Amino acid sequence: MIDRRSFIVAAGALGGAGLVPRPAAAAGAPVSVLYAGSLVTVFERSLVPAAAAIGLDVHGEPRGSVELAKLISGGLSNPDVFISADPVLIQGLMGQGGFASWYATFAATRMVIGYSPNSPFAHSFVQAARGERKLVDVLLQPGLKIGRTDPALDPKGYRTLIVAQLLQRESGIPDLAEKLLGNARNPSQVFPEETTLVRLESGELDAAFLYSTESAVRRLPAVELPVYANLGNPALDKTYQSVSVTVDGVTRKSGAIVYALTILNKAPDPEGAARFVEFLIAGRGRSLLTAAGVRVLAPAFSGDKAAVPASLRAALGLADAAATK
After folding, report:
1. Exposure check for the chain: N or C terminus, fewer CB within 10 A?
2. Based on the domain organization, do 141 and 207 belong to the same domain?
3. CATH no. for residue 203?
4. Can you list the alpha helix ranges (DSSP code H) found in the chain?
5. Which residues pair with 222 in a beta bridge?
6. What is the DSSP letter of 324?
7. pLDDT tens digit string along 235-284?
8. Confidence grade of residue 321 (pLDDT, cut at 50, 70, 90)
């Protein structure tokens, strides 16, 4: 078990308007960020340009968070910053080879069913959103094409399987999950995270299991899932975690969905990485995330506080906290 300290940034430390522009830390060397593909739109359209305005050259690579964690642990990528859609993946890097020593949760989201306004089933989803039809009945219509991400590579992928199990338990339909999704890696439904939204927007897919952040930033209509299944309420963590799924021999659970980040222990540019993290969780990045439909949180840090860069600790006003197990 990981021995870690937890500490939360005081609310007053987040009140600043943002960072003061400074020269880039390393000339010609951008800050490299591996990040959850569900953040691709806000990252590329908003965060990268805003970071550039304060002298930060940022290069991001979006993929499923499981895939990114494997690239890091396998020595195939050594970024400055890793942003994951599941803190568990960073915890694994803390214990596996010591790639990271701490992480901070900073944003939250929930699962929804996004649908294409060009779909022949669009009106059915409108009715479900109004409460006029059961969402499960809409999803089970013959010929409806559902998209989702790979549960072996992406937290949203295995969370989709968990959502289906939670819906099944409440619906009373014994084989609902199988009827909705087929097998765990059903090739007729599973697509790379970066292309699922494009397929949905084009009408190639009728519906997709998405994070609410994705539907909001891409202005895609969506139907809310019942709270007992949307993985969005921390008060229901016990309910969410009562279901597990196993994909390729790996068993996964999920509480309420949160995004977490860390600066890798061998980051090529730790100073630039610290500036980017400060920008993201305490500077203008917070308002940009909010504008994109992301629910920002007061950053909660876990792990070795001493490993957090001194400049970042000072900027965020981190106070000492008693160790917790």
Report:
1. N
2. yes
3. 3.40.190.10
4. 40-42, 48-53, 65-73, 87-95, 122-129, 135-139, 155-171, 176-181, 193-202, 212-217, 237-240, 270-282, 284-291, 310-316
5. 114
6. B
7. 999 999 999 999 999 999 999 999 999 999 999 999 999 999 999 999 99
8. very low
For residue 62 the two structure tokens come to 């979006």
| Residue-level pLDDT at 29 | 82
Q: What is the pLDDT of residue 26?
A: 44
Counting the structural domains of the chain, the total is: 2
To the nearest 10 degrees (0 to 180), the angle between helices 284-291 and 270-282 is: 50
Residue 234 near residue 253 (C-beta atoms within 8 A): no
Q: Which residues contact 132 (CB under 8 A, 6 or more apart)?
A: none
- Whether residues 95 and 178 share a domain: the answer is no
Range of the domain at 138: 111-252
83 within a domain of the structure (yes/no): yes
> What value does the mean pLDDT of the chain take?
89
Which of 228, 252, 276 represents a domain boundary (last residue)? 252
**Contact between residue 32 and residue 59 where contact means Cβ atoms under 8 Å apart:** yes
Instruction: State the pTM of this model.
Output: 0.87
CA–CA dist 24, 262 (Å, integer): 20
